[in-house]
Amino acid sequence: MADPAVHQLTGVGIGRGAAVGPVARMAPPLPEPTAEPSRRQAGEELAVATTALAGVAADLRARAARAGREARDVLEAQAMMAEDPALADAIQGGIASGRTAARAVYEAFSGYREALAAAGEYLAARVADLDDVRQRAVAACLGVPVPGVPDPGHPYVLVAHDLAPADTATLDLDRVRAIVTAEGGPTSHTAVLARTMGIPAVVACAGADRLDDGTTVLVDAARGVVVIEPTEVERAQVAAAKATAAAAVVGPGRTADGHAVALLANIGRPEEATAAVAAGAEGVGLFRTEFGFLDAHNAPDEASQVASYRKVFESFPGQRVVVRVLDAGADKPLAFLNQAAEPNPALGVRGLRSLRATPAVLHTQLAAIAAAAAQTAAQVWVMAPMVAEPEEAEWFVARAAEHGLDRAGVMVEVPSAALLANETLAACAFASIGTNDLAQYTLAADRQVGGLSALQDPWHPALLRLIRLVGTAGARTGKPVGVCGEAAADPLLACVLVGLGVSSLSMAAPALADVRAALAEHSLAECQRLAELAVATSSAAAARQAVLAS
Ligand code: PEP
Ligand code: MG
Asked: Which long-range contacts (CB under 8 A, 24 or more apart) does 268-277 make?
């Protein structure tokens, strides 16, 4: 940090934990190396390129030696790419015709890349690995840090301007203690992922771009602050808080007077089911199936989907597992569903709209869900994302019924679906309120833009009034209404949501303990009183203040 007087940065905290560690920054993507002729001797450029490639290969081999089996094979294959003699020849040719080492490496990899991409599906999947080796080799030629998620070889706090889904997918959970980003709102992909992994994060953090590698920081998600060079006392407070969290209450969700509120888990990949069970989840309230296919070039086949869904269902015998069909688009594009470039993807063909445009993909997915459900004892519910009109709910329910899936519901994440809550619920079996998107669309504030995070605050009374409409419609029709957006993971707001008529709360597993404890401290009547106070205000800050002060 340039200014030693700055001791603390503020942003939006994700989760309730805190962690201390040294900063490791995510280096930005490299620009294309200049095509200007080299001013050095060809021999010098060749030495730079040869050393760079040898260094990259050695580094990849060293990582392979430390990695698990699957990752080891990929890393070994990448090391072999860096050592390929045909590539070395192409680089030598480029340097002989006046290119810099970086440019010659860049061009040689491009030729190799095109050949791979043209060679068919399996090899095309290797293109991403090749691009990674190219980035590493070009960075080594230029003497700059390798772009992407850093690997300092010890636990660290990851600091980035922003994180893309592909970056977060490769995070080593044993190493990353906390995440700090300059961009990203409370409902951005980074925030969702940090919550899922139970990693404390501060997003939309002004000044994060000026944190230096190696600086020790304390990331306090509950307060939304990043303390630079924390004192011994501050570090000790983090350790004490961890010990208290470990001793939290367990059991099913209920208010102080025994009103049951199902506490469910949000998961993105089958492997996360284990942590959800360990945290005492009473089922899964949101299985984000698209998370398994963010890198897929082709639509997943039925058999592989059956295998993946079975893993989740088997973890919850007799319990509810709500499977959301693919929610592609905007921040989560899927190559096989979203092809057209759209001027405004969040308002474009996403969610159920893209599945209606590609019905074969939905058909295969519903068939896979039904087959996996038939092989296990879970109560499987299916749910459609981004439903704007009751007619869409009807259409989805009919598609689900064709596969024998009779518990079909919709997400309420577009204001029209909430405003028509009675009609929406009349058309389906249940509703689950996605407060992340509902906030985005109610307040016209892109959830990916950190600078707008104040407008994505789920405490906003405009959002709470929409939730009340759905809660009331649920009570009138006798159909369950849950919340599965990030709002459900805020312990005090969770009580307000229950007061608004919500009967289940679904969240990342690490948030369950705090929400369970908060519910146990409030009766249903108290939750209803808090809800009244919050909806009567005119800003998120006022709603939070009214509830905190009561
Ligand atoms: C939501 O929008 O609140 C939600 C739960 O869905 P996602 O975050 O995956 O868009
Ligand atoms: Mg959503």
From this structure: 268/193, 268/196, 268/292, 270/308, 270/309, 270/311, 270/312, 271/311, 272/196, 272/509, 273/311, 273/312, 273/315, 273/316, 274/315, 275/198, 275/509, 275/510, 276/315, 276/509, 277/315, 277/316
